[in-house]
Design a protein that fits this description.
The chain is mostly helical and 174 residues long. The longest helix has 22 residues. The chain is globular, with a radius of gyration of 19 Å.
Length: 174
């Protein structure tokens, strides 16, 4: 439902079921014992974020608290979805993230170093979003650059037939 008809779930015509669903999803994200349920709850929330229905705005601080709580979850799927959530929120509510942006950047830096490839990939896209933001985000990012750049460079992967590498030869450093 959250994926297919999010707009209809935020309608007075059907009694705004998101007013009940969103708090329930947020609660399950942080308290359910099953990592599958935590992950799927975050997935449902992520489908709602682009439309940012009223129920999400009303529960925004609770959502941030839930995301923060599960950011160190043992499940790589949950951590991946946390990165997705942050990336989506950057697009629609950056101004509300700014007060905690330094902590968000610290988490995303750690996620960029995660042992799980999917978590690293979703965390890495965060940095592209930061580059497209305004000066306050750039200033926060600047403080992290000495640690971030080596991490990003270490994570770069090139295909053997990558055209960008044409003309570069491996050198023997013996």
């Amino acid at each position: 439902l959250c994926e297919d008809i999010p707009d209809q779930l935020d309608s007075d015509d059907v009694g705004r079921p998101l007013n009940t669903i969103v708090p329930m999803l947020i609660r399950m994200t942080q308290t359910h014992s099953s990592d599958i349920v935590r992950s799927l709850s975050l997935d449902c929330i992520n489908y709602l974020i682009p439309n940012m229905p009223a129920a999400m705005d009303v529960n925004f601080q609770h959502l941030l608290g839930a995301i923060s709580k599960v950011s160190a979850d043992k499940s790589p799927e949950v951590r991946r979805r946390v990165c997705e959530s942050i990336n989506l929120l950057m697009e629609v509510r950056l101004e509300l993230l700014m007060s905690g942006m330094s902590q968000i950047m610290q988490f995303m830096w750690r996620a960029t170093n995660d042992k799980e490839t999917e978590v690293r990939l979703h965390a890495t896209s965060f940095w592209s979003s930061c580059c497209m933001c305004s000066t306050p985000v750039h200033n926060l990012m600047r403080n992290l650059l000495p640690r971030l750049l080596p991490t990003l460079l270490d994570g770069m992967r090139f295909a053997d037939d990558d055209e960008m590498l044409d003309g570069f030869e491996e050198t023997d450093e013996t």
